[in-house]
Amino acid sequence: MKALIISIKLLVTGFIAFVVAIAITILREMKRMSKLVSETSEPIEGVYILKDRFVNSFLIKSSDGYIAIDSCENKQNLIKQMEKLSIEPDDVKHLFLTHSDQDHTGGLNAFPNANIYLSQKEHFFIKSGIKRTFGFIKIGRINKLEHEYTTFSNEQVFEIGGTRIECIITSGHTPGSASFIIDDKYLFSGDTLAINGDTLTEFSRFISMDTKANKMSVKNLKEIIKARNIGYVFTAHHGYLKSEID
C-alpha cells in the first residue's frame, strides 16, 4: 500500500510539473511574439495594421468600407488602436477570420456592422466539440464563435468594394485555418507562417494542432507566393515582410 501511495504521489507531481512546463512555454512564446508583432500603422496605402499584446489584425480599405482580417484579442484595445488611425469601427463592413482562436476573435464585438466570414472546415471544427489541442498535448479548450457568419471553401473568391479576396485553406494550426490573398498583391497568413529574419518559416509547432498538415500548408503558401509574385506577406504574430522566396 505504501508503495502505491508513493507511486500516485509521483504521478501527480509529474503531471503538475508537466502542466507548469506547458504554461511556462506558452507564456514565453507569447512574450517573444509581443516583441515581433508590428506597431499600429499604415505601412502601405490602404492597408492598416492593428496591434494587440502579441497579435496583429489588419484592415484593408475598399469602396464598401473597411475589410478586416481577424479582430485581435481585446475589443477595447482594438478600438483604441483604430482611434490612432482615425478609423471608426462602424466603418468595418466585412471581417474575414483566419481561424477561431481567442486572440483572433476576441474583438469581434468592436465591428457591429461587419459581415463575418469563416472557413467551412473551421465551422465543422468548432461545431464538433473537439478540443483545441496543442501539438502532441491532448488537453485544451473548445473553441467557440457565437456570432453568425458566412462560410467559405478553399480558393473561393469574394469581390467586395473593388477588392478581391481569395481564401486559401491552410490547415494545421487549427483544422480550418485560412489565409487570404488580397488583389493578388498581399498575403495574410494568420498563424500558418512565421518570419525568421527575412525568411518565411513555419509557425510554432507547439501551438499547432496538426504539425504535419501545417508543414504542407507552409509549402503550399510558399509556392503560391513564388508563382504569383505576391508582394507582401503579413503574419499575425511575427510582423510582415516584402516577400522574396528563393
User: How much β-strand is present in the residues?
Assistant: 25-35%
The number of helical elements comes to 5
Terminal CA distance reads 63 Å
- How many strands? 17
Residue-averaged pLDDT, rounded? Answer: 87
Structural notes for this entry:
The chain is of the alpha+beta class. It is 30% helix and 30% strand. The protein contains 5 helices and 17 strands. Strands 1-2-3-4-5-6-9 form a 7-stranded mixed sheet. Strands 10-11-12-13-16-17 form a 6-stranded mixed sheet, with no helix packed on it. It has a two-stranded antiparallel sheet with strand order 7-8. Helix 2 links the parallel strand 4 (65-69) and strand 5 (92-96). The mean pLDDT is 87.
Reconstruct the topology from this structure.
Blueprint: H1 2-34, E1 41-44, E2 47-51, E3 56-62, E4 65-69, H2 75-84, E5 92-96, H3 102-105, E6 115-119, H4 120-128, E7 132-134, E8 137-141, E9 150-152, E10 157-160, E11 163-169, E12 178-182, E13 186-188, E14 193-196, E15 199-202, H5 211-228, E16 232-234, E17 240-242
Parallel strand pairs: 4-5, 5-6, 6-9, 13-16
Antiparallel strand pairs: 1-2, 2-3, 3-4, 7-8, 10-11, 11-12, 12-13, 14-15, 16-17
TL;DR?
The protein has 246 residues and is α+β, with helices and mostly antiparallel strands. The protein has helices spanning 2-34, 75-84, 102-105, 120-128, 211-228, and strands spanning 41-44, 47-51, 56-62, 65-69, 92-96, 115-119, 132-134, 137-141, 150-152, 157-160, 163-169, 178-182, 186-188, 193-196, 199-202, 232-234, 240-242.
